[in-house]
Structures are given as C-alpha cells and as structure tokens.
Write a structure and sequence with these properties.
single chain, about 170 residues, alpha/beta, Rossmann fold, 2 domains, 6-stranded parallel sheet, 7 helices, 6 strands
C-alpha cells in the first residue's frame, strides 16, 4: 500500500510550537502569517528553522512509520512546506532522520495534495486539514483525517496506533 501523509500537525505538533514562539515575540498576533512584512521575514528566517529542527513528534509516530515499512508499505510525505524558503529540505530530512521516521519520498510545496496523491499512486492519504482530505477524496483516494480541526465524514483518528491498526485491517 502507498500511504500519503502530511507533516505539519499530522505527524508533528507544529501549530503548538509556532504559537509558543509567536506568543513570546509577537503576543498580539494569533497567526505568524498576519505579521507585518518586516516581522514576518524575521520570524520566518529565525523561527521556522527552529521549528523544522525541534518541533515535537506526535506520540507513537516513529514506531508506526517503522511498522508501515516493516509491513512493506511505501510512505510519501506530501507537504506544503517549502513556500517560505530553501532551508526546509535539509531541516525536514534531518528531523525525520533524527526521529527515525522512515519514508520513500517527500513532495514539497504541495498546494493540491489530492492531485499530487493521485500522481503518486497513493492508496490512503492522511492529513489534519479537511480541505486537503476533500481534495484527495475527490481523486478517489481513501482518506484518514487527524482529529482536532473540525469534524468530517472521513475516518477520524487521534492516535497513530489506531491508524496503524486500521491500515493493518485493510
């Protein structure tokens, strides 16, 4: 089986990490993309590099991805990362290696994850954003939605162990 997976807030705790730094440096803003250009450029150049190095992995992710590979599945990360600088590739790969998260391929700057998933022959796609799940579903791809950002009609899990068990059952 070919498994397509988002990175930010799907295997990591990206929003919590960004918001921690945003509250320290820019307490009046709720989203770093709303910062004035000068502050945005500083935040991206300094903070996102740290994010890609030090953000937290969700519980059981390394084990589950090692199991995916042991079971013979292919893993393709399909991520929007890359739209804010060239540092993303080095830090993302180092992060995945450090946490012992195996994968076969990473597709960066993914705006239409559904089309990219289809082009990569993905059988099941996992994302935290409903809109991305919708795009993959419209391409005929089975979808898992990570709980936490709204309710969907898709299979929803908040535990990677439950996702592993679901995929094993297919």
């Amino acid at each position: 089986m070919r498994i397509g997976v988002d990175i930010d807030d799907t295997i990591t705790e990206t929003t919590d990490f960004i918001n921690h730094y945003l509250k320290i440096y820019y307490p009046s803003y709720k989203c770093y993309r709303d910062l004035p250009k000068k502050d945005f450029d500083f935040f991206v150049s300094k903070m996102l590099k740290n994010l890609y190095r030090y953000e937290c992995v969700k519980k059981h992710v390394p084990y589950v991805f090692q199991e995916f590979k042991r079971l013979g599945h292919s893993v393709v990360f399909i991520t929007a990362r890359g739209d804010l600088g060239d540092f993303y590739d080095i830090y993302t790969k180092a992060f995945l290696k450090y946490h012992e998260i195996p994968y076969d391929k990473i597709v960066y700057k993914a705006e239409d994850k559904g089309k990219i998933a289809k082009d990569n022959n993905i059988d099941i796609f996992i994302d935290d954003k409903k809109e991305m799940c919708d795009k993959a579903y419209k391409e005929g791809i089975d979808v898992i939605h990570i709980k936490g950002k709204g309710i969907t009609d898709y299979k929803e899990f908040d535990s990677w162990l439950d996702i592993l068990n679901y995929i094993k059952s297919k």
